[in-house]
Amino acid sequence: MSMGMQVLMEMDDGGRRTDTIGLEQTVDSPVNRLSELGSRSFIEPLQRHAAERALSPADKREERTHTGVVKFKRQPKVPDVGGLGWRTKTGHLLKNQSYYTQKTKINRWDVPTHAGINTWKDWHGPKMRTDADMMERLDKFDEEEAIWEAKKTFVNTTRVQTLDRLANRKINRSMSETQPSWAPHIRARREVHSSFETFESCMGEKPEKELKKVYTDMVLQRDRQAVRNISKRIQNEETWKVVFKQMEQERRQDIRADLQMRQAHTDRLMAMSGQPLRQDPNHSALPNNCSTRSEELSQPKPSKLPQDVTKLTDFRGLIHADQEHALEALFPGYGHELSNGFRSSATRSIEPGWPPPPEAATPRQTEKQPSREHLIKKGATVQKGAIPVSQPRMESIATRVNEDLMVKHSKAQFRVTAAPPPPPQKKTLMKEDFGINTTLNDPLRLTGDFSRTEQSIHPSSPSRKAQESLPPPARSLTYPVVVVSHPPSPKSVSSPKARSKATSPPSQPMTMTGMTGMSGGMLRNASAPSMMSVTSNGSFRGGSKQALSRQASVSVCRDLDDFEARVSTVPRISNFFATPRRASQGPSCSQPIDEPAQ
User: What is the pLDDT of residue 575?
Assistant: First the structure.
């Protein structure tokens, strides 16, 4: 066995390769190649060029944004840096710095140094030519910046809304101490007693679209006719009561006349028989020594008609008598007047008399009459408090749910201690989600005053953009209410300065309760909390709190002095001139005490 075969067997440990080379002689022996090492150089299969020409100077991200893809083609050349690995003269891969990559968890085929010719032409070459690695790093940087900005927006928006809510509650608590009216939450009647667990008792809780299905025009017309029929019966009963009273008075007069006639006949008989007559032949009435108050108390109590006839049990279950809140919800801005006006007309129709008074007429709403919401909010100012937030931070919020926004979606309170019906659900202000993922999917909502009432309408985002990835906004369980504050004091109205301003009606101060606080500025002399309110820049009016307290005390003292100066003196009222005692022990209690002569 030759020396070459022996070396080959030692390397292959007597395997199949030795048999193939030595016996079959189908493969050239590597031993024959050892003599050819260094006889000829390795030739590069691809042409190399400078690395500066490998990268594209333009940013391909703009092309990707407009067209959606980045066009590429096969690369027939290799850069001298970052391309295929360099090889030795004999064709072996040079194990330099690029051969041992520093990246972990990466496949060998994804490293250009270990790639083959076809892999370079189809993958690594186009990837380097389009600068895909830099695009990926820039995308990652932009994503991190967007996430950080979304976090800042969420924190700033939440903080501003929290401070606004806190300021509103502070003003609400201070104004509730002196307010003559407030808006309590509407509670269901079935919470009071189980007897209200009926269909009719919960009609005030239904929205307008549901009430229209139950309270149709014919139902309301028949309900008003039922009120008229019951009022007509009550008017007939009241009329007969008056007739019976008149009959009793006439019978009394007849009895007294008959007694006088009998007395006259008796006197004639006594005169004819010669008997002595009474000293007072004219039968004069006894003198009346009663006081005016005693005469008033001696008069019979007149029968009074009820102030509201629909409060009687005969009207229970009728819509216009019991469902005032539901009528206001059915006819916004008119239902309250419809119920009160019709009930007042029904009360007037039960007055006794003949011919009977006209039946209760249905109040009609004029087409040009402005709504109650417009009349209450017209010329009104809304009080709000300042929050400690800088202007740059205010400019970086998504939206601000404060009084300026809620007053546009609020209901005006028209009763003293009852809240108005809620607005339609589609008109209530929606609570948006400004979380990180939502902001990243729709950054166009960061307008600073974003608000909407309908989910299908998106005022900022383009209509062509799908909104499936955005969470739906939530409806609030409460609604804001605007309440009228204290009117100005009489002293301010009677002052010359106030009379000079009487040419134009003063702005009506409003407060907001319910889900919100109060908003706008009040008059100086409206109430005590208004003197403690803050201006728009956050400073107290009139200086410090001590100065405001002194100003409040001075104002109260001036009001008291003004009242005492204008009030008229009234003499003391007394029933006795001296201590009551018997006539034998001194002067009478009804006579003045005579002072002794000196």
Answer: 43
Residue with the two structure tokens 């202000």:
429
Q: Which residue, 206, 230, 478, is CA-closest to 327?
A: 206
Strand-strand pairing, 508-513 and 481-484: antiparallel
Which neighbouring-strand residues pair with 48? 78
Where are any strands of DSSP class E within 428-507? 430-431, 474-475, 481-484
Q: How far apart are CA 414 and CA 336, in angstroms?
A: 9
Contacts of 37 (CB under 8 A, 6+ apart): 90
Q: 223 near 316, Cβ under 8 Å?
A: no
Angle at 455 between CA 454 and CA 456, to 5 degrees: 95
Cα separation, 312 vs 231, whole angstroms: 11
Instruction: Say if CB 489 and CB 525 are below 8 A apart.
Output: yes
- Please provide residue 484's backbone torsions phi and psi, each rounded to the nearest 5 degrees: -75, 135
- 203 by Cβ neighbours in 10 Å (0-12 / 13-18 / 19+) ranks as buried
Cβ pair 380, 521 in contact under 8 A? no
Q: Give the bridge partners for 413, in sequence order.
A: none
What are φ and ψ of residue 508, in 5° steps?
A: -85, 115
In sequence order, what are the residues at sequence separation of 6 or more whose Cβ sits closer than 8 angstroms to the Cβ of residue 23?
none
- Helix (H) / strand (E) element for 11: namely helix 3-12
Q: Is the pLDDT of residue 113 over 90?
A: no
Q: What pTM did the predictor assign?
A: 0.57
By residue count, the chain amounts to 598
Residues 302-316: tens digit of each pLDDT:
788 888 999 999 999
